[in-house]
Amino acid sequence: MRITISGPPGSGKTTACSKLSERLGLESVVFGKIFRQLAAEKNLSLGELGAIAEKDPSIDKMIDSRILEIARENEDIILESRLSAYMCARNGIPAFKVYLNASPEVRMSRIGVREGETLEEARAKTVDRQRSEAKRYKMYYDIDIEDLSVYDLVVDTDTLDPDQVVERIIEGVSGSN
Which stretches within the chain are classed as H helix? Predict the structure, then answer.
């Protein structure tokens, strides 16, 4: 089974992806790591690379074409990226599409802890990153990232621990078969 996991920064995507991969014995691919690696290779922050990507569509196109390539080549895989659900849906690739969400307060707190930043630093960087991503996705793909209609399951992770999130996903996948 092909599963996509999407959601805003700090919603728990990467953790859920890792734990779900362990539970189901499926390979997982985290596309945010590719963007982070690219930023590191260029000695840029995520925000700086995002600003460049607003002017250079080749950055997003490279990552998104890789999503499609991996999705087409693997029937049993977990894909974690902001656009994986949209890419699969638009290209007729069957997948169970999951969206994880959390309140801004919870997300910013998680990001601050993860990145070793204050809440204010995390908020400033994340708001800028989200604005850049929303702009690029609309500009390059005509995707409104706020439109959740493409998803099979939406999970609010505010009060759930990672194992509970994975349980909800597994229940959703099982109910879709």
Answer: 13-24, 31-41, 46-55, 58-73, 84-90, 104-115, 119-141, 162-176
